[in-house]
Amino acid sequence: MEKSAYFDEVVRIASSTTPPGTSYVTAAALGMHLRKAHPSVDWKTFGFKSMSGLLADPYLSSKLQIVKTEKDALAVTVISNNSQIPTTHVETYNPLRKAVWEAFTLPSPPGRRFFNRLTGAIRIGLDVAPTPADDWVELEKIGLLEQKRWAECFIEEQLKDCSCADEARNLISLPTWHPHQFGLELERLSEGLMRQWNLYRSARVSAFAKKWLADKNLPIHWAFQTKSEIPEPAQPEAVAMAAQQYLLHSPEETKRVILAALSQMPVEQLLEIPIPPRLILSALSSAKPR
Fold first, then answer.
1. Could you tell me where in the chain the CATH 3.30.420.610 domains are found?
2. Is the pTM of this model over 0.70?
3. Is the dihedral angle over the CA atoms 14, 20, 23, 24 positive or is it negative?
4. φ, ψ for residue 170 (rounded to 5)?
5. Which of 113, 177, 180, 289 could form a disulfide with 124 if both were Cys (CB 3.0 to 4.6 A apart)?
6. Distance, CA of 20 to chain centre
7. In a 3-state reduction of DSSP, which class is residue 76?
């Protein structure tokens, strides 16, 4: 591959892999997609020592603007020919604490849910408030009707010009509607819609939690993970090397480590992982009582 062709591929992949709802793709993710698309060639082939060195090339810097995320991760945003160069500050999504997400969204366990006014601790599945009762405020989970309204807004705001909009509207009228199943059905209509819906829903849950905390005169930051709790994305090279080391010993050990890592992630982040819908449906089918 010629250098100019590789540069064009960098720009094309940066444009096509920018996640919905954001204006940038991280350099780590871009590098991963480049290696996947062209495993036999990388930036070192053309004399660059690193991904950042590649992105600093004058040609690419005229097509891609280097920015930093709030976590100081390197990212790029595609420069539009008919728009101004975007500002260097890029907003990133700050996820809810796992316990907060589950308290507001999970239908089970049954019972009442409480938030501690002094510590931000959460207790769910209770019959009465923990003691001392004055330290706890009751919260109500977000119902399916409210989330169905979000789905309607999602379609009108983000799918109104999509050829699958009418089919998506039909999904909302199903009597068994559920946000997770809705995402799976959207993915069948068009690849990438499930992740787009999950991001939209996560933002709505976050806004709901913020408003609830403000109404109760509680610190809003209690609902969200702190920067120290949000892991920095691992470099693809390091992840691949670690995986290869495990595979040298046992594929089952690799699977065990990956599953253990996934178990530590909050539900909202798990929903953003692009798991093939057929595998999710297979798992749901296997989990049903026979």
1. 3-78
2. no
3. negative
4. -65, -30
5. 113
6. 10
7. strand
- DSSP-H helix ranges across 94-143: 98-105
pLDDT along the chain (290 residues), means of 10: 85 84 81 87 83 80 79 78 37 69 88 93 93 93 92 89 88 90 90 87 89 89 67 47 52 74 70 72 67
- CA-to-CA dists, residue 202 to 114, 119, 154, 235, angstroms: 21, 24, 12, 25
3-state DSSP call for residue 119? coil
What does DSSP assign to residue 89? B
**CA angle, residues 206, 207, 210, in degrees to nearest 5:** 85
Instruction: State the pairing for strand pair 74-78/122-126.
Output: unpaired
Indicate the residue type of 162. Answer: C
28 touches 95 (CB < 8 A): no
Token digits for 51? 């991904």
What is the amino acid identity at position 38?
H
